[in-house]
Known about the structure:
mainly alpha
Amino acid sequence: MPLIAAKILVGFVVGVLIGLSGVGGGVLLLPVLIFxxxxxxxxxxxxxxxxxxxTKIPASLLHLKKGTVKxxxxxxxxxxxxPGSIAGVKLLMHIRHLYGDGVNSFxxxxxxxxxxxxxxxLLFQKKIEDRVVEHPRxxxxxxxxxxxxxxxxxxxxxxxxGSGSIIMxxxxxFYSYQPKVFVGTDIVHAVILTGVxxxxxxxxxxxxxxxxxxxxxxxxxxxxxxSHLATRMPMLWLRRLICALLLVTGARMLxx
Length: 256
C-alpha cells in the first residue's frame, strides 16, 4: 500500500473511533503515528497537535452557535495553557539541543505515562459526571482554571495529548457545569491550545504537512461514519476496549 494511502487510512480509522467513542484524537492518533507509521516522536507530536486543531474547529463553532460555551472559563484556561504550552515546547527543544534524537525517547516515556493515566480517568468519567450532577460544587476562583490550563498546556506542548481529556477530567473534578457546557467549553479551549501548540511546532520544523493533510482527508469521512455507527453499537464496552488498548500501548511505550 502506498504510504500516503496508509496515512489516509489511519486518519479514517481514527476518525471512526473518535466518532464512535468520543475519545480524543491525540490519545488515539499519536501511538499509531509512532508505532504504526514510524514517524519520529517529535514530528508525530507536532503533526498530531496541528491535526487536532483542524478537526476540533467544526465542533467548536457548533458549540459556540448553540451557546454551550463558558467564554470566561475558556479565557481563564487559555491564560494558563498558552504559556504552559510554550514552556512544554521549549523544554522539548532544550532536550533536543542537549541529546539530539534522544528527545524521541523522552517523548515516548511521557506519552506512555499519559496513556496509562488518561484511560483510567476515562473509565471513571461517567461516575464523576453523575456525582457532579448530584453534588454541585461551589464556584471557585479563576486562579484554579488558570492552573488547570497551565498543567494541561505544558503536557500538550510536550506530547500533544490531553487538550481535551485531561482538562475535561480536571474541570469535572473541581467545577460544576452542565455536561454539554463542559464539552463545549473544553472543545473551544482545545482549539486555542492545539492551535498555539501546532503553530509553534510548525515553526520549529516539527510538523509534516503532507502527513497532516492525509490524516485530515481520511478523518472527515471517518468521523461521519463513526458518528452514524455510534447509535448502533454498545458504547460502554467499546469505550472500555479502547481504554484497555491505550493502557497496553502506554505500557509498551514505557517498557519497550
